[in-house]
Amino acid sequence: MRASTHGLVINVIHSLCTCSNPSFSEEFQKTLRLSLDEFSLPKFYLLFGISKVKSAAVTAFRSSCRHPTDRWLGNERVCQQLPADRERLSLPSLEVITDALLEIMEAGSREYPDCQWLSTWNSLAKNLAFCYNPALQPRALIVFGCISKTVTDQEVKQLLRILVKALESFNDVMLIEALIMCLTRIQPLLRSESPIHKALFWVAVSVLQLDEISLY
């Protein structure tokens, strides 16, 4: 899945680079070419957690083949779980990837000021960030923190409520890490007179007392 997503990103950027209608300015085309080169670097293969993948296409369709661990009951195939992939897409890696995609999105928005790409992306990320989903919520929080241009006190309070619940159970360190990273990114967006600033200071002090290496 990660290899396919990386390949899709490469293909979309390449399509924009070769697109003749609509036509883009030289500045935007330069941004696209630089982004295409950047996403093709080994650094981004590592960020996507696919540094050992040689071909995204091969990896994408490998699941359609019969695995040696599969067994059959009559005409039905029963898939047995394979060993977990050692490479992971970490939250800091997702943050770097999101910033790189945001750069392209912002450059495209300058070309077409009326387009709603960024606002739509922000809305989708926000909805997932505030909705409980162990698989998607931490990643959505990272994206929401990276692409947000404005934030309200109410939104930060909602994030703090999620953090409180996560700390009460303390069974999902990744969610806590994502919340801290998200709050770090959106705190500068708060109005200067917001009372949330003082609360976030004590949140940071409290996090230091958790003795969890991944949160430092």
Automatic annotation (TrEMBL):
Superkingdom of the organism of origin: Eukaryota
Full protein name: Neurofibromin
